[in-house]
Write a structure and sequence with these properties.
The chain has 191 residues and is of the alpha+beta class. It has a domain of 121 residues: Distorted Sandwich (Glucose Permease (Domain IIA)), CATH 2.70.70.10. 13% of the residues lie in helices and 28% in strands. Strands 1, 2, 4, 5, 6, 8, 10 and 11 form an eight-stranded antiparallel sheet that branches. It starts with a helix and ends in an 11-residue tail after the last helix. The relative contact order is 0.20.
Length: 191
């Protein structure tokens, strides 16, 4: 016996409604799904960052992937989408500890103020520096521009790194949770 065409259409619409509702109610994908998450509760890195190094909320092209050994394979920072010539900003207050070329790439390093001994140090590359070694910088202050060449990404990007002494850390852990969230802020009604 064949089912009534209206029943088949209603069944399909019901399934579509269930799938759509499930997709809408599901939590959004994590910000770092392909890039690895910042360490939960990492007390060695205070969330002193006040801005992203480039843009408002750049896409993380490749996340932090610490190597298993000192010389092992891994990714000792994060790659952020950025157009050539875009301003690169200091994530937090500090002092420029290096501004120059390393292996043909422009690099800027900033020692972050008040982050312990040894202090945390962020690095940005490839960057055409607009600051000199010893310059004090404020959060959000422009320290250079994205260089048109020298990126190790397939498209232009900024590699953002973080170190304490000889240890590499996840630079995303510098940013407070409100800067890491995707999507606009929403105000809820008060009842």
């Amino acid at each position: 016996m064949r089912a009534n065409p209206c029943v088949r259409v209603c069944a399909r619409l019901t399934l579509l409604l269930v799938f759509t509702t499930t997709a809408l109610l599901a939590p959004p994908p994590p910000l770092f799904a392909a890039a690895g998450s910042p360490p939960a509760g990492d007390t060695t890195v205070p969330a002193v960052g006040r801005t992203w190094p480039v843009g408002l909320r750049p896409q993380v092209l490749r996340g932090w992937d610490p190597p298993a050994t000192v010389y092992g394979r891994g990714h000792r920072g994060v790659d952020l989408t950025a157009a050539p010539g875009a301003p690169v900003r200091a994530v937090a207050a500090g002092r420029v500890s290096f501004a120059g070329r390393v292996a043909g790439k422009g690099v800027v390093s900033v020692e972050l103020a008040g982050t312990g001994d040894p202090p945390l140090r962020t690095t940005y590359e490839p960057v055409t520096a607009s600051v000199e070694e010893g310059t004090e910088v404020a959060p959000g202050e422009v320290i250079g521009t994205v260089a048109a060449s020298g990126s190790h990404c397939t498209a232009t990007c900024v590699h953002w790194g973080l170190r304490r002494g000889e240890s590499y850390l996840n630079p995303l852990s510098l940013l407070p949770a409100w800067l890491l969230r995707r999507g606009p802020s929403r105000l809820l009604p008060v009842y």
